[in-house]
Amino acid sequence: MCYVQEKKNITNESLIEDLRNLAVKFKLMEALCNLPTTTNFTISKDRFMFGASICIGIPKHKLTRKNIQQNNASAASARVDVIPSIKGSTHVEMPPGSICGHPWGNCSEATPWEALRGEDCSVELNSLTITLKDLEEKEICYKCNEVAKTMKSMGVAKVVPMHLFP
């Protein structure tokens, strides 16, 4: 799920409030379908985008926890195949004790970062992720940090974390 719009007299505060409203709407759908665990808001100089972590939607037939995990992993893998900055990061090994159990490409940051990155020059991407369970700010995970480093080394983006409460 993605939403891209040109900025027109919109404040960061109003967009952060939109992110919270989006998260609340996801929570209301909880009984109807499988939900993503996080939602992300990323803003560049002239555009912004919301994204969600991967979670396969309404089941058409009975799904087991294993089937859902396989479907989610397959969708995340498809993101890796088409997003160069993720593909360029997957060689990195997780340090011992690092907690980042989801597959590469699963994060809510993946699509907004790719959609808003620069083409021939680097842009600054201000990024905020919140959990849908408790609507709390979430730090960028280890894998997303690696993707951000790859984007910086590719010369297409510098990711800067935003915070709900500065």
Radius of gyration, in angstroms, nearest whole number: 16 Å
If helices are DSSP runs of H or I spanning 4 or more residues, what is the number of helices? 5
Q: Return the structural class.
A: alpha+beta
* Total beta-strand segments: 6
Helix content: 25-40%
> Main beta sheet, described?
6 strands, mixed
Number of domains: 1
Give the SSE string: EHEEHHHEEHE
* Poorly predicted ranges: 1-5
User: Whole-Å distance between the termini?
Assistant: 28 Å
| Mean of all residue-level pLDDT scores | 79
Beta strand %: 15-25%
Global geometry:
globular
Could you characterize the architecture of this molecule?
By secondary structure, the chain is α+β, with helices and mostly antiparallel strands. The chain has one domain. It is 36% helix and 20% strand. Strands 1, 2, 3, 4, 5 and 6 form a six-stranded mixed sheet that branches. The two termini are 28 Å apart. Residues 1-5 have low confidence and may be disordered.
Which terms summarize this structure?
166 residues, alpha+beta, 6-stranded mixed sheet, 5 helices, disordered N terminus
Overview in brief:
The protein has one domain.
What topology does this entry show?
Blueprint: E1 2-6, H1 12-28, E2 38-43, E3 47-52, H2 65-82, H3 84-87, H4 110-116, E4 123-131, E5 137-138, H5 142-154, E6 157-161
Parallel strand pairs: 4-6
Antiparallel strand pairs: 1-3, 2-3, 2-4, 4-5
